[in-house]
Specification:
Layout (H helix, E strand, L loop, with lengths): L1 E2 L6 E2 L19 H42 L14 E7 L10 E11 L2 E6 L4 E4 L13 H14 L2 H5 L4 E3 L15 E3 L1 E2 L3 H7 L3 H4 L5 H13 L6 H4 L5 E6 L6 E4 L5 E2 L10 E4 L2 E5 L1
Antiparallel strand pairs: 1-2, 3-4, 4-5, 5-14, 6-13, 7-8, 9-14, 10-11, 11-12
C-alpha cells in the first residue's frame, strides 16, 4: 500500500495518484533506468580502453614521425668562427669497424681560411685504397682514386646540405720530386689529395706530416701488409700510416706519399700506383 503524503490515506501499490485527493506520488527508479545506467558505464569503459590502446599505438609513432621530420630538415652548420689550426666535425664515415653503431663524425684540421671558405684535411687516415687499379703511368687527372673521392666518398660521407657547402675548385697539376715526370692537367674537383708542394706548405715538419689511421683502416692496413709479408716500421706499430699525395712519384707508375715517419716516399717495391695506402681527403668548405 502507498500512503498519500497529503491526505494520509492508503492507496494500492503501483498507484500514480491518490484516489482520494489526486496527489501525484513520487515514482521509484525502474529497472530500465538501472539498465541504462549500466549500459552508459559500459560504453564509457569501452571508449576509455579504446583511447588507451590508440594512445599506446599512435603516440610513439607521432614522436617517431617528428624525429624523422627533424632529420629531414636542413642542418644548421655554422663554421664561420673557425680558425686555422682548429679541428671541426663535418660529415661521417665508418671508422671504428663496428657498423652496428653507425658512422662516426669525420674530424678535420683547418689548414687555411680565405674568401668565405676554409681548407681542410682529415685528421686521420680514413681509408686504405689504391691510387689506381692498374700498374701503369697515370696522373691524378685519370686515376681511379680521384673518381672514388668525388663520387663514392662524397655520397657516403655527406648529407645533401653538407655536400652543397663543398665547392668545386681548380686542383692544380703540381709536379712531384722528379720534375720530368708528367703531372697531367689541372682538374675540377670537390675532394682531392694534397700535392707535395701543399704538404710542405701546410705541414712544416716531418712530425706534423705523420698521421694515424682510424681503427678499421689500421686493421685493413695490417691485414694487407701481413698478406704481402711487409715489415712494420716502429711508427706503424704505433698506429701511424703512409698516406697518398696527388703529385706523381719518382716515375710515372710510382705513387708519391708521406711515409708513416713523415718523410716523402714512393720509390721502392710495393709502392706503385696500384698499391694500397692511406687516404686523407682534402677539400674546401663554404662557411
Amino acid at each position: 500500500m502507498i500512503k498519500c503524503p497529503k491526505c494520509k490515506k492508503e492507496n494500492p501499490d503501483g498507484s500514480k495518484f491518490c484516489k482520494y485527493c489526486g496527489c501525484q506520488f513520487a515514482q521509484k527508479p525502474t529497472q530500465t533506468k538501472k539498465s541504462s545506467k549500466k549500459i552508459i558505464i559500459a560504453v564509457v569503459a569501452v571508449l576509455l580502453v579504446a583511447v588507451i590502446v590508440l594512445g599506446v599505438i599512435y603516440i610513439p609513432k607521432l614522436f617517431e614521425d617528428k624525429n624523422v621530420e627533424n632529420e629531414l630538415l636542413p642542418e644548421k652548420i655554422d663554421l664561420k668562427n673557425t680558425e686555422v689550426g682548429d679541428y671541426i666535425n663535418f660529415g661521417s664515415y665508418e671508422q671504428d669497424g663496428d657498423t652496428s653503431n653507425g658512422k662516426e663524425p669525420i674530424e678535420w684540421i683547418v689548414l687555411d681560411k680565405q674568401d668565405g671558405k676554409i681548407f681542410v684535411i682529415s685528421r686521420y687516415i680514413l681509408d686504405f685504397r689504391q691510387y689506381h687499379t692498374e700498374y701503369e703511368a697515370i696522373t691524378w687527372e685519370d686515376c681511379a682514386l680521384r673518381s672514388w673521392l668525388n663520387n663514392d666518398f662524397i655520397d657516403s660521407s655527406f648529407t645533401d646540405k653538407e655536400e652543397s657547402m663543398i665547392p668545386t675548385v681548380t686542383v692544380t697539376a703540381d709536379v712531384g720530386p722528379e720534375p720530368e715526370v708528367d703531372p697531367g692537367n689541372d682538374t675540377q674537383d670537390k675532394v682531392f689529395l694534397l700535392s707535395m708542394e701543399e704538404a710542405d706548405e701546410y705541414f712544416s715538419s716531418e712530425k706534423e706530416k705523420m698521421c694515424k689511421l682510424t681503427e678499421c683502416t689500421e686493421d685493413e692496413r695490417n691485414e694487407w701488409k701481413r698478406a704481402h709479408s711487409y715489415a712494420f716500421s716502429s711508427e706503424e706499430e704505433e698506429g701511424y700510416g703512409h698516406w697518398f699525395l696527388r703529385s706523381p712519384g719518382y716515375y710515372g707508375c710510382g705513387a708519391l706519399m708521406i711515409y708513416s715517419s713523415g718523410k716523402f716516399g714512393g720509390n721502392g717495391p710495393g709502392l706503385g700506383v696500384n698499391c694500397y695506402q692511406g687516404i686523407r681527403p682534402a677539400m674546401w668548405i663554404t662557411v
